[in-house]
Amino acid sequence: MPPHPALGTPTARAEGPQKVTGAARYASDRVPPGCAHAWPVPATIPRGRVTAVDTAAALALPGVLAVLTPYDAPRLGPWDDPTLHLLQEPAVPHRGWYVALAVAETPEGARAAAEAVRIEYATEPHDSVLYEDHPAAHTPEEANGGYPAHREQGDPDAALAAAPVRVDCVYTVPPLHNHPMEPHAATAVWDAERGGLTVYDSSQGAGLVREALSALFGMAEDRVEVVSEHVGGGFGSKGTPRPHVVLAVMAALHTGRSVTLALPRRHMPAVVGHRPPGLHRIGLGARPDGTLTALTHTVTSHTSQVREFVEQSAVATRIMYAVPDIRTSHRVVPLDVPTPSWMRAPGETPGMYALESAVDELADALGMDPIELRVRNEPAVDPDSGRPFSGRHLVECLREGADRFGWTALRTPRRDGPLLCGVGVAAATYPVWLSPSTARALARPGGDYLVEINATDIGTGARTVLIQVAADALRVPADAVTIAIGSSGLPAAPLAGGSAGTASWGWAVHEACTALASRLARHDGPLPPEGLSETADTTEAAKAKPPYARHSFGAHFAEVRVDTVTGEVRVHRLLGVYAAGRILNPTTARSQFVGGMVMGLGMALTEHSSVDAAHGDFAQSDLAAYHVPVQADVPDIEAHWLEDHDAHVGPLGAKGIGEIGIVGVAAAIGNAVSHATGHRLRSLPLTPDRVLAVLG
Fold first, then answer.
1. Fewer CB within 10 A of the terminal residue: the chain, N end or C end?
2. pTM over 0.90
3. Backbone conformation region of residue 559, classed left if phi is above 0, alpha if psi is from -120 to 50, else beta
4. 116 DSSP assignment
5. Tell me: domain 142-177+274-432+547-695, CATH 3.30.365.10, correct?
């Protein structure tokens, strides 16, 4: 390590030794002496209400401490997410909704007790099937993120009808599930003597969990501490409090014991959110030279009867290309299904699959190279807001990727025995989000430094990068810096989400450490025993409305082999090239880009869930049925980036990189399959049965 490590230096994870030796403690590892265990009971009907609960057999089992039901569970206070109002009433809004909670001395005992609980129901008619002209479909005012659900400019219908060349197609994306490696888990420790609650939670943001628990259980926030020190992934599903943490606290307060609850993986699809299915209708009109004249993108998705969630799947379409007449709209259908929520790059991932596939279809109709079609329609400013981009560089990503990939030489489809070989390309984008954050930096008499911030490292390497940021600002070696993160008792900071974490936290850490370095330069003599500290608060600067449209961009390239005998699609190569701000740590950045690309590969080829019409639940509820990519499925993946120090996104010039890696990958693979086979498949995933159906 150089004495003054500059940002941009490849650096191994600071917590790596802890993780590989098992010393890192996750939420369900924080089991104090005498800790009890809880197991929830999911509803087995698609809609209705609980009419009776028989707990006698469960309570008779050895070691069972309690069974909580809608009739005797602690009452909860108001909170804006009704999915957390658990065991408050007998209504069952969908299959999998929790209707009881068993608590026992051991996890095995809690599971046995949960299975012994007998629930009687009154069922009601249910509707769980999404289709485009569903009578309940409507256009809300807003989609997720506060975006207007409907935007229109010009007369896109007339422009589309008049276009010399046009495509009109429907793409479908099935329900998808986050499935982080670590299931959702929490350990609740109730200290009756001091009236305080400590919760170890698998969460992307301890501060928001504390706020929710305080409101739900009527406690002052200073009596609640939430710790999320190590988190084994989330992909959005841990972005807000989930049922497990509320139930763990319920059980702890009811029994007076510490309680651990780790969700069974089979429960997760129904209770921690999912990417909703999407029906995308896209129309594109162009002149013969490829200039776009019209674009329409309407997406229909489902939501639950519990809480409306509208994935912003058509929003990215608004900023991608220069089109004079454009309409983007979101329609949502409330059904008797689990509540959807955030999943890696919500909106951009499914929306860009549809848009970038349609752009490829238009290139085919024009007889034009799909890269050249995209370049021809590059906008000078943000088409949606009219503001200049703080940095775009999409054309450079496409050109650089084409050179690295050998695009031109591969544009002729070829056959290798039973294998059809083809290549595809798609653009990628993700917005830049920066949230207010606070941090504290302390210089200690021993010559080392402590940085404190309630950031959360969900496996991205945030700890390591924040140490680099601090060391860079203090002009000291990285091993002189210790960082404390993942606790609601630390200086407030936003959750790990929206690819905003490291850029937002890093800004505050940079400011605090820069101020501390300046103070130390003015200080004479030894430090006082308590050291010297400085704090920073970026609220005012982060909330200022920027005069620029701030986004990251990229390009994905895929080469595939399609087996004409089995219908199997194998991705031979994947390449991503990104303009995503200043790369603070190439080692962890490459891991994030590649991880996103692998997830996009799964979306394209293997990941698929479906709602069982009879039961209103997901048929694929575990990793035996829901197929995430494994090592044998993943080719040699390359990730590269351009120099893109964006001066308009804070002092570090950094943008988020956790999500752009998935955006567009499914389209690039789908476009490659179309190139190889001469047939366009418009429903994901591209499974052998679908491929064989078009090959004949």
1. C
2. yes
3. beta
4. H
5. yes
